[in-house]
Amino acid sequence: MKKTKNKAKKSKPGKSTTLLSGAAKSIKGLRKTKLSTAQKMLGGAALVALGVGYLAKCLSGSDLPARPDATTTADADAAESNLAAMDADA
């Protein structure tokens, strides 16, 4: 007879099948560790940089109306007078 007992093996959870469950598992692992002040500062700076880049992308030049200045108003006036002259000739 054996002197040692056969212990039942504990089943390990399988690999995560979805991206969400894998992310949840990795976040649970991060909660156990403490971040240093430098790591917190770098993480915050990275988030700020991403936010600024996102806002710059959203507020690109095509979305904002152009400010009228002297050259654009002069060009617009010249174009209107040119169109008026062409209509008079026809």
Structural overview:
The chain is mainly alpha-helical. It has 3 helices and no strands. The protein has a domain of 25 residues. The model has no long low-confidence stretch (mean pLDDT 76).
Task: Provide the helix percentage.
Answer: 55-70%
N-to-C CA distance: 116 Å
Order of helices and strands: HHH
> What proportion strand?
under 5%
Region (Disordered): 1-23
Biased composition (Basic residues): 1-13
Secondary-structure map with pairings?
Blueprint: H1 19-31, H2 37-58, H3 70-89
Give the structure's gist in a few sentences.
The chain is mostly helical. Helix content is 61%, strand content 0%. Residues 1-23 are annotated as: Disordered.
Keywords:
elongated; 0% strand; mainly alpha; 90 residues
